[in-house]
Amino acid sequence: MSMSSLRELSLLTKDRNELIDITVRVQKIIEESGIKEGIAHVFVPHTTAAVTINENADPTVQTDIISYLEKLIPENANFRHTEGNSDAHIKSSIVGAHVTLFVADGHIVLGTWQGIYFCEFDGPRSRRVIIKILPDT
Amino acid sequence: MSMSSLRELSLLTKDRNELIDITVRVQKIIEESGIKEGIAHVFVPHTTAAVTINENADPTVQTDIISYLEKLIPENANFRHTEGNSDAHIKSSIVGAHVTLFVADGHIVLGTWQGIYFCEFDGPRSRRVIIKILPDT
Amino acid sequence: MSMSSLRELSLLTKDRNELIDITVRVQKIIEESGIKEGIAHVFVPHTTAAVTINENADPTVQTDIISYLEKLIPENANFRHTEGNSDAHIKSSIVGAHVTLFVADGHIVLGTWQGIYFCEFDGPRSRRVIIKILPDT
Fold first, then answer.
1. A39 and C132 in contact by Cβ < 8 A?
2. What is the mean pLDDT of residues A117-121?
3. Which residues in B lie closer than 8 A to residue A44 (C-beta atoms)?
4. CB of C104 within 8 Å of any CB in chain A?
5. So what's the architecture of B5-135 in CATH?
6. pTM to 2 decimal places
7. pLDDT at B137 over 80
């Protein structure tokens, strides 16, 4: 196994719309890799979910993000896709399927208030997050 | 030529707003590079276009994304920029100009329903997509 | 110091909502690194700011982006977070905290009209941008 092979997280989401803090789990994968300096790429292989970085302190921030996205892109907005989850697809493209993180001294480089959040927009479901950590050369 | 030099796709878009599936063309460039394990960076050098990952099965998802973005950010929303394409610039920043993909065993790592889409927001035009594939070290 | 260590920009923003062109400063950091071919990752370690690529010519484009985001996600939209900056957190997740740039022949690869913009959504403040430049191997 090369140092930069793919790792994976499994998640069980509980609500239709939900932010789940995965910072500690991503950090653990970095530690297991043994890589001290590099880049960690976090990728969501789903089209009705996303990943973002946002505030890890006051949980009302996460509530506000989820609620306002629901207001901006409502579940029933006269969409053509008959599965009833077009709102989730749109949110996925707006928030994005990946984040890029710096690794320094074995730790994710994040601002004081930053955490990494898996964004569920069409749960509850079983979900995956794929992580690739690349060491500096 | 180094293994990680830049490659390019050319596109002719047909509508003002359009999603174009470029998954097969990106995969072909990866194959031509000979890189089996690595990262593929896809970058759009335009300010009224974007690139995203979303559902590749039911085409009504693509229609819903395009239509709802038009509703959210209308073409004529009392903008100051006189070229009449401020909506396209805003969509470009919201969706984003690049995606990062994992390459494993010579193939893009994508979820079952994921495809890579060039997003035209101010077409029809001739457009470019720049791709850089980096092998694992 | 390895060639791929972290560099940093400091910014003083002047308005609550503001786009600041950092293209020249990012280019200068690339030149100082001595790296000719590679990737430049630009990361914002804040949860009420972002970084994006957009038009560098007509400044009304920047005004339109800022103004329309304020209209789409107003400062006082009945949020639960009591600090009064939930709009800024939402914009941060929608625009995103990082951009990935190609470096070729010592220069950032950008389209004719593209510039790199720090996005302030809860200023005025003192802000940081972290940059990591990775040479091709």
1. yes
2. 98
3. 111
4. no
5. Sandwich (2.60)
6. 0.97
7. yes
